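This is your field. Please look over both lines of this record.
***
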Amino acid sequence: MSSIGTGYDLSASQFSPDGRVFQIEYASKAVENSGTAIGIRGKDGVVFAVEKIVTSKLFEKGANRRISNIDTHVGMAAAGLVTDARQLAEIARDEASTYRSDYGSPIPISHLTQRVSSYMHAYTLYSSIRPFGATIMLGTWAKETGAQMMCIEPSGVGYGFWGCAAGKAKSNAKTELEKLKMADLTCAELVKEAARIIYMVHDEVKDKMFELELSWVGEFTDGVHQRVPEKVHAEAEKFAKSAMEEDSDSDEDMS
């Protein structure tokens, strides 16, 4: 991350001579140091899967979740600093609550993305504050619009996606996502694929323990974002582990 001259990384409000804002790049690096998060948009909804790294056996299971409810119809998955992600979730909830109070209807995800991304962008403009070290994914389903998913980066840039990945294994997860025909798959099928991808990209050498978080929102949940039921969660993990064993067996046969 070297540039022409020194001292250009001390403030988020300063460009380097070659047109870079280093504080935003450092925030993106913080995202790359966290567990992998993926979002997949299918034909009947959106599935989120997160690799939550467990650094101690003493931690209580289910603490510091990286998947949140924003409104009844909107879910959020995050990669990066969990405290920054939690703050962004609160901002998104405030926006969704205000919209519902003012207009009497659920907030469209495009409007929510615009509001949250503007907030994140504002934190890249002043020297007294720092950018958010988190990438967030927002997903929803409605009868009028179907499934929609957005991803917002630390710079405040937000796009609509069919498949999105963030975190330390972003590139490997993205490669696996590109192999899926998401528009033809249901969430019941995608939740297994999401679990498989998280298990596949997990680095067992550096991060031995992790929890798999899964959630979905779609036609089958009546547009309500919720955690995947325990039975479906267990089946998805079983599918992922069997897929990993098949891959290892095929590698041994080739050698």
Observations:
- The helical segments are 22-32, 82-103, 109-122, 170-177, 187-201, 230-254.
- The beta strands are 37-41, 45-53, 67-71, 74-80, 134-142, 146-152, 158-160, 163-166, 210-218, 226-227.
- The chain has a mean pLDDT of 90.
- The chain has six helices and ten strands.
